[in-house]
Design goal:
336 residues, two-stranded antiparallel ribbon, 11 strands, Ribosomal Protein S8, Chain: A, domain 1, binds NADPH dihydro-nicotinamide-adenine-dinucleotide phosphate, alpha+beta
Length: 336
């Protein structure tokens, strides 16, 4: 089955997303922050975290699980540790409030951490780390979610799809960025493959009866597996700890237990770290980095992580969006 698409400009994507959020209870500031995140995801070709997420964001507003008027509160716990109470709001506004403080502290002291609590994250993670690297800093972040991934060797979900993102600054150039789920495939990608009837590679997940399958809709009902066997599994475990107890928040299973099941993003935590390579190393390492990247790129078949998105970003033209999705969001924008 192939899906019909409609062309929308980036401005149309932003306006549609923002108006739909406002029509369902978000205030101007929150709707703007979420619509910007969604539009940037469509721009970069991160379509599983673009408009596709708007119906879920809106379910969370409609059920009142998320406060669409939340004003995040940032506390300076020590000169290099900030705690953000997102006040049951969506993550993008918490990032707008918290990341600038993190950047200033890391530029001054060499490193800084931001612990975000009571936040609803439903997006890709690269925006947070890229923003940090725009200021000459290394960024690292992770979030957990609800159980969808079985630890290596098991058939019972305990880990979220638990993404982490890392970014290294390159003055005047796009940073080196990776942003990946520790599940073999992000849940959004599975849902899109299920919707479009596309098979997924064997090893992506298990059916409800615990069998390996290539059928995305079966995996959507069953469990995902971590990437890379036990190695991905231990990284997913680390992310449970960093995004939960380290920041004073819940493990994935606890996030699910307190969720109302409306299909929107659950409440949880996020860990963000910023490091200054200049302060850590005591020198300017830019030339060394560029030499390394030159060698890297000289290897046949190799590309830098983030390069696909950065290339997509150069195209300022319209994007192809699933027609059924546009209809759904348009209804959500217009219904009273
Ligand atoms: P992918 O497997 O598509 O990509 C992972 C990373 O590898 C990307 O940085 C990508 O760069 C890079 N990459 C891909 N192919 C190559 C290659 N051939 N050489 C070098 N680098 C490469 O991502 P996932 O499916 O794991 O995750 C998708 C998104 O889902 C992420 O943005 C993640 O944050 C998000 N997510 C969010 C969750 C949440 O709760 N908020 C939960 C789970 C996932 P590039 O982008 O340039 O292709």
């Amino acid at each position: 089955m192939t899906s019909t698409t409609i062309k929308l400009s980036l401005d149309e994507i932003f306006n549609l997303a923002k108006a739909a959020l406002i029509n369902n209870g978000a205030n101007e500031e929150n709707a703007d922050a979420v619509a910007t995140t969604v539009t940037n995801a469509e721009r970069d070709g991160s379509i599983s975290h673009g408009l596709f997420r708007i119906p879920g964001y809106i379910k969370a507003l409609q059920s009142k699980k998320v406060d669409g008027s939340a004003v995040p509160e940032i506390k300076e716990v020590t000169p290099i540790i900030f705690r953000c109470d997102a006040k049951n709001g969506f993550a993008p506004l918490a990032h707008q409030y918290g990341i600038e403080k993190l950047i200033k502290a890391a530029q001054k002291f060499g490193m800084a951490g931001l612990a975000i609590q009571r936040c609803h994250h439903f997006a890709a993670l690269w925006p947070e780390v890229e923003r940090i690297s725009e200021h000459g800093l290394v960024g690292l972040t992770s979030v957990s979610y609800t159980p969808a991934v079985a630890p290596s060797g098991g058939t019972t979900a305990l880990f979220g799809t638990n993404p982490m993102a890392f970014s290294w600054p390159r003055p005047g150039k796009n940073p080196i960025v990776f942003d990946m789920a520790t599940a073999s495939m992000a849940k959004g990608e599975i849902q899109i493959a299920a919707r479009d009837g596309h098979p997924v590679p064997l090893g992506t997940g298990l059916s409800p009866s615990g069998e390996l399958t290539t059928d995305a809709s079966e995996i959507d009902k069953g469990v995902l597996l971590p990437f890379g066997g036990h190695k991905g599994s231990v990284i997913a475990l680390m992310i449970e700890l960093l995004s939960g107890p380290l920041v004073g928040e819940t493990f994935s299973y606890e996030s699910k237990e307190r969720d109302n099941g409306d299909g929107g993003p659950v409440q949880g935590g996020q860990f963000i770290l910023a490091l200054s390579p200049e302060i850590c190393s005591g020198k300017d390492t830019s030339d060394q980095i560029e030499q390394f990247i030159k060698r890297y790129n000289e290897i046949d078949g190799v590309r830098l992580p983030g390069a696909r998105r950065h290339k997509n970003r150069e195209d300022t033209g319209p994007r192809q969006v699933n027609a059924e999705l546009i209809n759904t969001i348009t209804r959500l924008r217009d219904e009273s």
